[in-house]
Design a protein that fits this description.
Length: 155
């Protein structure tokens, strides 16, 4: 979640209107509607209660052709000049920012929650659940009308 937030912050700083689509997509808001700009695949290896290592796969549409419902940086004026080194430098800054955020769980949760794309109700275990933001660990908080709450985790 820290990497998604750091990438979103970097793009917002360049004038890109973006949202986070829980659990792992970054959307670019366009006149035609939200378009997928990036996907993130996190992974943690644990030993007991300790994290041994973390990895993140990041797919960012740079100048590639994109399918319907997606966008790339090159199509958005001012986001990227097309130079691979400029994109590499951006990604390094994003990773540095993500590392700085890694120890600030509440700041990551709050920042990511502020950028969440609207979500439809979720059908789980035979009933509808309304999304209500993020849990402290980045899971999706879901509630039902009578006060039941659960956390959905897909990371």
């Amino acid at each position: 979640l820290a990497v998604a937030l750091a990438l979103a912050e970097a793009l917002i700083a360049r004038g890109a209107p973006v949202q986070l689509k829980w659990p792992n997509d970054l959307l670019l808001l366009t006149p035609a509607g939200p378009r997928k700009l990036a996907g993130l695949l996190p992974g943690l290896r644990r030993r007991g209660s300790r994290i041994r290592w973390a990895r993140i796969g990041l797919g960012l549409n740079g100048r590639n052709r994109v399918p319907a419902g997606a966008a790339n940086l090159r199509q958005q004026p001012g986001l990227w000049n097309g130079e691979p080194l400029a994109l590499s430098a951006l990604m390094l800054r994003v990773l540095e920012r993500a590392m700085a955020l890694a120890g600030e769980a509440e700041a990551v949760r709050a920042g990511a929650e502020a950028l969440l794309a609207p979500m439809d109700p979720q059908w789980l275990d035979g009933s509808w659940w309304e999304p209500r933001g993020l849990a402290p660990d980045g899971g999706l908080r879901l509630v039902q009308g009578h006060g039941r709450e659960r956390i959905l985790r897909r990371f």
